[in-house]
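User: Before I run my own analysis I want an independent prediction to cross-check against. Here's the chain; please return only the structure tokens and, at the end, one sentence I can use as a sanity check.
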Amino acid sequence: MDCKNNTMKNTHSDTQHKVRTTLYLTQENKQRLDRIPRGQKTALMNRAIANALKELEQKENNKKFLVMIADIEPVKAELSSEEMAKLLKAGKRHVAKAKSFGYVTFR
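Assistant: Structure tokens:
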């Protein structure tokens, strides 16, 4: 708040709303950041936080995916995966009898 004009000032950029916050740094990180020009510190910290959050989201998505596929059982077919791949590459139409799912058609 600007006390002189008694008005509220918001900091905006074209792409995102900026929020002021307090960040507690280790002494080592503080010293290293002190070497970076003032305008670049915020951008650096925002990129680092965004990358760390993206990594956490990726780990969480990986966990969810593993839970989702835990109960899936592989389909057993009379052809090996190598034979199936060769048929698919050759572009041949082949019907393989899968033991538990009837017929599987490859085109």
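Sanity check: The beta strands are 94-98, 102-106.
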